[in-house]
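DM between two lab members

TW: hey, do you still have the Lipoprotein entry open?
JB: yeah, one sec
JB: this one, 125 aa:
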Amino acid sequence: MKKIFTLLFFIGSIFSCVPEDHVLELELVNNTSEAVKNLKVFTAGEKVSFEVDVLPAGEEIAHSLQVPKDAVDGKYTFRFTRSNGKQESVTGSYLKEGEDYLKKTLVFDIQQNAVNVNHKMLEVK
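TW: and the structure you got?
JB:
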């Protein structure tokens, strides 16, 4: 019995040392009259990403992106191609000073002539 408790304690100790991943909720919204293509969201020095081939006009996609704590750099890059072939790119930060374990939503709102990026904090219970 003592061996079982020792084993459980050892296993619990190992898992308690595993760093918590950062979670970024992504929302890609196409508020244009035409489809956009090759949508990509990069973070962690372009090591962690989310890709979508096509986002039709008036549609949106939501996705949870797990960024390992050891790869968090706080920066993102959003790239896509408009229907006329023009490539667009937006960069920014998803961390605020003093935040450690982050759960945030980034909303990329594609307009006819611009891209708006909104940040929302998630309720963590």
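TW: got it. The CA atoms of residues 5 and 11 lie 10 Å apart. Confidence is low (pLDDT under 50) at residues 13-19.
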